[in-house]
Amino acid sequence: MLYTPRNLRLLVPLGWSSPGDMARALDIMRQRARGHNLSVCHMYNMGVCTAADCVRLHVCHRHVLDKCPLDNCGLIHSVVDSAHNMHALMKAGLSDTPVSEVLRRLREQIRRYPTRPSLCNSVYSGQGCQRHCLRLHYCEAFARARCKYGDRCYKSHSLRDAHNERVLTFFGWTDEEVLGVLKAKDSAISGSPIAKDETPAKGHDDAEGTGYQDLTEESGSGEGTETIAKKDGAKQRKRDREGLERTKGKAEEEVDMERQEWRRKEEEWNCRQKHWERLEKTWQEKEKEWESKEQKFVQKEKQLQEELKTLTEKQTRDQETLAIHEREREALEQLREQEQKKREHDEENYRKEMAEKEAQCQELTEKHTQLLTNYTASEETVTTMKRMNFELGQQLVTLQMLLKESEDRDVDKAKAQETKKGKDAETQADTIREQIKKQRECLECSICLGVFKKPVTLGCSHTFCRGCIEEASRAQPLGYGGGQSRQCPMCRQMTSSLVPCLALENLASYLSDDAPKQQPGAVGVRKTTNAQSTGDSGQGRTCVRCSDLLGRALRSRVACDHRVLRPTEPVTF
């Protein structure tokens, strides 16, 4: 109530005396009260403010304190970027106040009336706390160190569960601070019998009660600052009425004195009436100015709506772009799946090729093993042929010795019996010729039925002329046997080795009847060179290099240049 003597003494000298002036003064005081009680809505920070008449600012609580860790945390970081905040500022009379001043007042409000940790009384009730609560779900007895249930207590004994961790993170509290506040509140409650009846939301005095904000969802739809100011006005009127009753007598005297003073100053009041009229005109002009400001605010609100519409369109475009990106991502996923299938197909083909290559390698290994076996058998055959060549060589030496002994016997018989020389020589010659003929039969090729010419031995131990076996190989069908393999004409066994037999070649050249015809030069040398150098027929001479008779040496083309020795006595041949 502004019509108290004290208020009138303060307002009348300033020109505030009419009922309209008093109403305007009351509105100004209410706006100032709202400005002082302007605060941040905690329910908005939790994303659950559903109050239609919420008078608190929807702004990031941590941004006001310069503690927001993110530039874009999803909450509003400006007090003038939303219609709700502009409406709240207009109701508080701070629409023309700079943003920095509004933030300063909000910080001052938070410092003067900081949010204190409190325990939720409904979480452990029958229905439970089903709201987005910013109070702690904690055992009150455990906070006082009086919980007798210990681990069996159904109430939470930890400040690090999901709900309490969210509350501590939001307000930036630590465990030590929360426990200290709860213990201090416990000691205050235990020390004051009046404080025991207070709830955690009613622990402030009248001055602090206007700035305290409950930490539950219902606090967003609580009483506005205007209602609180009305309650404060009612309390003030009650106190003024009580004061008037106590000082009624003194007030009457003061009224009489003031009445006299009013009479003396009546003329002054009349003069001031004109001043009041001017003030009224000024107020009318201010009202017009307020109307123009209101129109500007309406225009600004329309502009904000247009911006909101633009943002909505932008969001729609962003969603369309996101849908396009999603389709592109799906296309990329399909391409990736196709690439994966192709890679798996290539890997399967590669494994098949590797399996085929391994099979080929295994087959080649088996063939290599078989070739090694054949090579070993060929080596054994070559060894056998060498042994046979050696035995044939020994037989040839034996035959030569027999021939030499035979010739010696012929010489002895010629010396002893000159008369029987011719017959015995002929007989011996016939015998020798028979033996040579028999030996020649052993030295005949089974293909051409002639004496061996450059004899070669196959892997099956059969011997043929080189020209005959090559001609027989050419006569075989194309691709028969493969490679350098040949088929033996005798046993039909396939073989690839041709071993020259020098012993048989020498024996064949010695026993061949055609040797003088094939080697006329060698015979001429014997008849001219050796005969002329010695002056005799050269019969019975011995070769120095081959230790053989001269006749045998001269019949061999390879021994035509050997040195021969003169016999100690004439030998007839």
UniProtKB/TrEMBL annotation:
GO terms for molecular function: nucleosome binding; ubiquitin protein ligase activity; zinc ion binding. Residues 527-540 have a biased composition (Polar residues). Residues 195-207, 228-259 have a biased composition (Basic and acidic residues). GO terms for cellular component: nucleus; site of double-strand break. This is RING-type E3 ubiquitin transferase. Residues 138-160 form the C3H1-type domain. Its main location: nucleus. A zinc finger (C3H1-type) spans 138-160. Keywords: DNA damage, Metal-binding, Nucleus, Transferase, Ubl conjugation pathway, Zinc, Zinc-finger. The keyword Endoplasmic reticulum does not apply. GO terms for biological process: double-strand break repair. It is found in: Nucleus. Residues 191-259, 329-350, 408-428, 518-541 are annotated as: Disordered. It comes from Amphibalanus amphitrite (Striped barnacle). Its EC number is 2.3.2.27. PROSITE patterns: ZF_C3H1 (PS50103), ZF_RING_1 (PS00518), ZF_RING_2 (PS50089). Residues 445-492 form the RING-type domain. It catalyses: S-ubiquitinyl-[E2 ubiquitin-conjugating enzyme]-L-cysteine + [acceptor protein]-L-lysine = [E2 ubiquitin-conjugating enzyme]-L-cysteine + N(6)-ubiquitinyl-[acceptor protein]-L-lysine. The keyword Zinc applies. It holds the Pfam family zf-RING_UBOX. PANTHER family: RING-TYPE DOMAIN-CONTAINING PROTEIN.
